Automatic annotation (TrEMBL):
<dbReference type="GO" id="GO:0005835">
    <property type="term" value="C:fatty acid synthase complex"/>
</dbReference>
<dbReference type="InterPro" id="IPR029069">
    <property type="entry name" value="HotDog_dom_sf"/>
</dbReference>
<feature type="domain" description="MaoC-like">
    <location>
        <begin position="186"/>
        <end position="261"/>
    </location>
</feature>
<comment type="similarity">
    <text>Belongs to the enoyl-CoA hydratase/isomerase family.</text>
</comment>
<protein>
    <recommendedName>
        <fullName>MaoC-like domain-containing protein</fullName>
    </recommendedName>
</protein>
<dbReference type="GO" id="GO:0004312">
    <property type="term" value="F:fatty acid synthase activity"/>
</dbReference>
<dbReference type="Pfam" id="PF01575">
    <property type="entry name" value="MaoC_dehydratas"/>
</dbReference>
<dbReference type="InterPro" id="IPR003965">
    <property type="entry name" value="Fatty_acid_synthase"/>
</dbReference>
<dbReference type="GO" id="GO:0006633">
    <property type="term" value="P:fatty acid biosynthetic process"/>
</dbReference>
<dbReference type="InterPro" id="IPR002539">
    <property type="entry name" value="MaoC-like_dom"/>
</dbReference>
Length: 285
């Protein structure tokens, strides 16, 4: 596998601009590249972490939230998407699902070796879906893994669309009501580096087929986990399925229930009850 090693954190606005500018002409031909993007010796910036915790609702602790580690690998993902060998366009892509595996808590003061690559391009009824795998090591120890599934609308890949497994209904009932301000997308972009304009500007969001500005999926997963962080085990798998866009401004209802040793989570539109995000958390024994 070819490796691109980053000496530091890239300027995400510049990498985003390069990926967007090169979106035209990316037609999926040639398949996914045998390429990984890595960055070694990455420290935890305590100031940046505190800002992130504030936006997402986490308490300030010595342990780093699992979703913040996605923040650290996200520049590697965008670098991968911007590489000329990557066959799918960033413009119009949609984050469908996100699974985080925390093998143990990462502590402030530890340095991480990060890696990201893409695999498993397969048909979807609306295009092509691709899994982007990310891993974080402390020395030789694997401490965290991420699996982000992205949909590239209108693209094609050989194969037939597999029947989607019937998912369990999202949990419902009383929960916490959160009022999401219009500037939430800009606030999360400032702490995550994800400057995709569908989260920042309603005009651009409408041009991409959304009714208005939408919340980052990773904010939704982070906020849901933050709400139960004092009940999470030290090692767990957390899954989020982004069912519908979370529009801002708006009001949502967060529901969490225990099922044995697992948590089932849902983010719903508060007035309609529509499921926006479905989540699960399972301990690793």
């Amino acid at each position: 596998m070819k490796t691109v090693e980053l000496p530091g954190s890239p300027s995400l606005p510049k990498v985003f601009a390069r990926a967007v500018a090169s979106s035209r002409g990316r037609d999926g031909k040639g398949g996914l590249p045998d390429l990984q993007v890595v960055r070694r010796g990455v420290p935890i910036d305590t100031g940046a972490l505190a800002d992130y915790d504030h936006v997402c609702g986490y308490a300030l602790r010595d342990a780093v939230p699992a979703t913040y580690l996605h923040n650290l690998v996200f520049p590697l993902q965008v670098t991968l998407f911007a590489d000329k060998s990557y066959p799918y366009p960033l413009v119009g892509s949609v984050h469908l699902d996100n699974t985080l595996t925390q093998h143990r808590p990462v502590r402030i003061g530890e340095e991480l070796d990060l890696a990201t690559w893409a695999t498993n391009a397969r048909p979807h009824k609306r295009g092509v879906q691709v899994d982007v795998v990310s891993r974080a090591h402390v020395g030789d120890e694997l401490v965290w893994e991420g699996l982000a599934t992205y949909l590239y609308r209108g693209q094609r890949v050989d194969g037939s669309v597999s029947e989607q497994p019937a998912g369990a209904d999202a949990v419902d009932g009383p929960g916490m009501v959160w009022r999401l301000p219009a500037n939430l997308g800009r606030r999360f972009a400032a702490v995550s580096g994800d400057v995709n304009p569908i989260h920042l500007n309603s005009i651009t969001a409408k041009a991409m087929g959304f009714p208005t500005t939408i919340v980052h999926g990773m904010w939704s997963q982070a906020r849901m986990l933050a709400a139960i962080e004092n009940r999470l085990p030290a090692a767990f798998v957390a899954m989020a399925s982004f069912r519908r866009p979370v529009l801002i401004p708006g009001t949502v209802r967060f529901v969490a229930r225990r099922q044995g040793s697992d948590w089932v989570l849902a983010l719903r539109d508060n007035s309609k009850g529509t499921v926006l995000v479905r989540g699960e958390v399972s301990p690793i024994s």
